[in-house]
Fold this sequence. Notes:
Elements: H1 8-13, E1 24-29, H2 39-44, E2 52-57, E3 66-68, H3 79-90, E4 99-104, H4 113-124
Parallel strand pairs: 1-2, 1-4, 2-3
Pfam families: Fringe
Domain Fringe-like glycosyltransferase: 18-110
Subcellular location: Endomembrane system; Membrane
Amino acid sequence: MCCFFYDFHLFFSHKGEPVKKEDIFVAVKTCRKFHSERVPVIKKTWEKDALFLEYYSDHAEPSIPTINLGVPNTERGHCGKTFAILQRFLSSAVPNTKWLVIVDDDTLIRFGPSFKKICAVKERNA
Length: 126
């Protein structure tokens, strides 16, 4: 489980523009056993809110599509897959965006104005 912490004072006092949809790249970590169970939930709910999104798995499945990063799935500790995602994000293989959001396939997220405003606050104070 991951947590996102931010300063509420900065969030509510921020007067700037939210981060644009074009500035966010979403990486979804999944594995073969959840392709038919979890991925469809993402596709039916929040996938449409992300302009740039890729699914990363231990098995390439063109119908989704998923990208096999060559990292086997593990029950615990997904550092290898996360590192491979970071390497891909920094390469020219994906769109050049300011933000990388890595989520698991059981994550429900909303990329609405509040999320984009939080990113803008962090960007301004980086």
